[in-house]
Amino acid sequence: QDSNGKARELSSWESDLRRREADIKRREESLKNAGVPMEEKNWPPFFPIIHHDIANEIPANVQKLQYLAFASWLGIVLCLSWNFIAVIVCWIKEGDSKLFFLATIYALLGIPLSYLMWYRPLYRAMRTNSAFSFGWFFLCYLIHIGFCIIAAIAPPIVFQGKSLTGILAAIDTFSEHLIIGIFYFVGFALFCLETLLSIGVLQQLNAIFYL
């Protein structure tokens, strides 16, 4: 009886699963027939987590700028990832868990928020010519540039500034630990490059916006 009950339960579960799959397919077909664009996740190719198709969705005259903005977003991903690695090295050497905690927050919050708060709005603005999306992007991108400048300096405000791989933290750590100092100087260079790239994106977008 137990085996029969389990078989019936399994059969019921499979039927419910098939019914839900059919319902999802019907909804997708309804949206397609209604002309609602379906954004399929396609990037990165090896593990798609976002929809990204500049070549087919962004007007040809601004595709180069969109690619540049995409490089800027990848740049902040690299900066925060390297910052996390460098601070881990510092944490292992000095044992200050507060630095590790802050670097983790920067990476876990900074990477998705940078995509949601300024890169995705710019992508949407380029695709739909939305004034609101452009305005939101400009506001958030200025905050992004401000963060990059602060990170490149790493002023000794919070925990001696070592939670960010800026120039002041790099000089401080280099005098104590050579390897950690090298990690921090690389992080400083990355934040500087990201700042310059971001300013370039803003200047080009501003020039196009006021044409």
From TrEMBL:
Keywords: Cell membrane, Coiled coil, Cytoplasmic vesicle, Membrane, Transmembrane, Transmembrane helix, Transport
Job of this protein: Probably involved in membrane trafficking.
GO biological process assignments: protein transport
Protein name (database record): Secretory carrier-associated membrane protein
GO CC terms in record: plasma membrane; recycling endosome membrane; trans-Golgi network membrane; transport vesicle membrane
UniProt-annotated stretches for the region Disordered: 1-21
Membrane topology note: Multi-pass membrane protein
Source species: Aegilops tauschii subsp. strangulata (Goatgrass)
Record's keyword annotation contains Thylakoid: no
InterPro entries cross-referenced by the UniProt entry: SCAMP
One Pfam family in the UniProt entry: SCAMP
Family: Belongs to the SCAMP family.
Principal cellular location given in the protein's record: membrane
Chain ranges passing through the membrane: 67-92, 98-119, 131-158, 178-202
Cell compartment(s), UniProt: Cell membrane; Cytoplasmic vesicle, Secretory vesicle membrane
